[in-house]
């Protein structure tokens, strides 16, 4: 059992690092692109052709990767005030059920998002010579990450390596 717990810890550590870097990188790229577009439009009086399309697609990618990030940090939408007052055994059961539902949601998002992303085939963006699928695959990727994070945390919860309170967002108190 300790071997499984060690594997869960390694996966969790690498997922955290990967998601931190991805969210920071995507947000930074979006920030730079939008500021460049504003600068060229209002200072240089010469708009770039991709000023709306490319940032919109990057924002969509950031949305799905950010959803996985929020799943990892337990900052997603939830009713943690109710869970905080539960007895430990009931809290563990509710958290396990929640993780199972989140993993199922992530799997469905990955499956149907993959079908939707595949439907774009080799279509290209209008203003930039980039494949549309590059951005559309963010939905199944985000869903797969949500499922993987939820299953990893479920394994940690069931093996006792993760306490139910560790899965709650930080308290405002």
Structure overview:
By secondary structure, the chain is an all-alpha fold. It has one domain. It contains 6 helices and no strands. The protein is elongated.
* Molecular shape: elongated
Instruction: Please provide the ordered H/E string of secondary-structure elements.
Output: HHHHHH
Rg over CA atoms: 20 Å
The number of helices is: 6
Write the layout of secondary structure elements.
Layout: H1 2-42, H2 53-73, H3 80-84, H4 88-118, H5 133-136, H6 138-159
Notable features of this structure?
single chain, mainly alpha, 173 residues
Please give a quick description of this structure.
By secondary structure, the protein is an all-alpha fold. It is 72% helix and 0% strand.
